[in-house]
Amino acid sequence: MSEPKFLPFALPDIGEEEINEVVDALRSGWVTTGPKTKQFEADFAAFLGGDVEAIAVNSATAGLHLALEAIGVGPGDEVIVPSYTFTATAEVVRYLGADPVCVDVDAATFNISPAAIRAAITPKTRAIMPVHFAGLACEMDEIIAIAREHGVKVVEDAAHSMPTYYKGKLVGTLDSDVTVFSFYANKTMTTGEGGMVVSRDKDIIARCKIMRLHGISRDAFDRYVSKTPAWFYEVVAPGFKYNMSDIAAAIGIQQLKKIRHFHEQREAMAERFDRELADLPLILPARAKDAGSNHAWHLYPVRLKPEAGISRDDFIVRMSEKGIGCSVHFIPLHRQPVWRDGYGLKREDFPASDAAFEAEVTLPLYTRMTEADQTRVIAAVREILSA
Ligand SMILES: Cc1ncc(COP(=O)(O)O)c(C=O)c1O
């Protein structure tokens, strides 16, 4: 019998609908930002509800940069970020000449700790960036209350949270200032590369729209459009080139239609993992604890208990030998040379984040996995941990 094929850690779920929509964009002659992007933005805002506006960009990193710029982050400011995140969350702070202030996370959820936020606030704090790790919302009521108390903004890094409910409301419609989603290839819905900035603050939306495309002011343009020739435009700021193409938006339009179904599939798979791995020396992922909250299941992160008798690194090698791709989320910021050395970060100041990293393995969970694929993952984990 031949060896089973390698099961990758993640795969996008692209169907004929996405392909046909992309072909439609290509045949239309409009391939950059245009009607498909406009439709994707409208569909996305309608999906979230709650009177938000949505602006499509070419990555979540670009969106986070735009969001921080729009709320006025600049040199000398501090922005509080969790240490347990991808480097993008912190790097955008530096793009603006401000300093990311890394704080520790909750030991069970790996989400930013409100107590750690409180302890890190200084007169220089301009914003807090909660990251909803793996697709489980942070303690947003507490975080927003701390922010309001100190007059600082909240920019949610919702790269993992499509769709995540927090106390009955979708992430994207909470009372923060801006929320940014990612449509990177491995996310719960993808446009290849892409992101969405969401807010109900008209000033933030207006600024992000201008800065997304070279600082060209559409307002000025629209106001005079009837009197001015089509070639006229005004540049009001040194902006960026962060717009989404209609080719990417075409994929997004169709992915969004499937997101509820994708989420049901992910939830069922997470429940199966929970059931069939429960007796092993593993700490399974944290669950939503509040009524009306859920988990997007972008990731299924487990931790090996000491009695598992195998290191995280060896476990991943063994899984790979069995033809199964795993990953680690995340190598925390305080362990990355740029942040560790640049800000003198020490492991002992991030005990929860550091302990999480040492034991964490992310198992493959995505909608293109078959029942048999998941059976194989479960069998491999059981075999390695029973040895
Ligand atoms: C927590 C977090 N924030 C931001 C990003 C950046 O997303 P993008 O690749 O769309 O720029 C990622 C990407 O994986 C992420 O995991």
What percent of residues adopt helix (DSSP H or I)? 40-55%
Structural class: alpha/beta
Q: Could you give a short account of the major beta sheet?
A: 7 strands, mixed
As a whole number of angstroms, the C-alpha radius of gyration is 22 Å
Count of distinct strands = 12
Strand content: 5-15%
- What sequence of helices (H) and strands (E) makes up the elements? HHEHEHEHEHEEEEEHHHEEHHHEH
Which distinct ligands sit in these coordinates?
pyridoxal-5'-phosphate
What is the terminal-to-terminal distance?
24 Å
Structure summary:
This protein has 387 residues and is an alpha/beta fold. It has helices spanning 16-28, 35-48, 60-70, 87-95, 114-120, 140-150, 202-212, 218-224, 246-276, 312-321, 337-343, 351-359, 371-386; strands spanning 53-57, 78-82, 99-103, 125-128, 153-158, 165-166, 169-170, 178-182, 195-199, 282-283, 300-304, 360-363.
List keywords for this structure.
alpha/beta, globular, binds pyridoxal-5'-phosphate, 387 residues
Polypeptide structure, described:
This protein is α/β, with parallel strands linked by helices and 387 residues long. Helix content is 40%, strand content 13%. The protein is built from 13 helices and twelve strands. The chain has helices spanning 16-28, 35-48, 60-70, 87-95, 114-120, 140-150, 202-212, 218-224, 246-276, 312-321, 337-343, 351-359, 371-386, and strands at 53-57, 78-82, 99-103, 125-128, 153-158, 165-166, 169-170, 178-182, 195-199, 282-283, 300-304, 360-363. It has a seven-stranded mixed β-sheet with strand order 1-9-8-5-4-2-3, sandwiched between helices. A three-stranded antiparallel β-sheet has the order 10-11-12. Strands 6-7 form a two-stranded antiparallel ribbon. Helix 3 packs across helix 7 (202-212). It is globular and about 75 Å long. The mean pLDDT is 96. Residues 59-61, 85-86, 88-89, 131, 157, 159, 182, 184, 195 line the site of pyridoxal-5'-phosphate (PLP). Pyridoxal-5'-phosphate (PLP) is lined by residues 59-61, 85-86, 88-89, 131, 157, 159, 182, 184, 195.
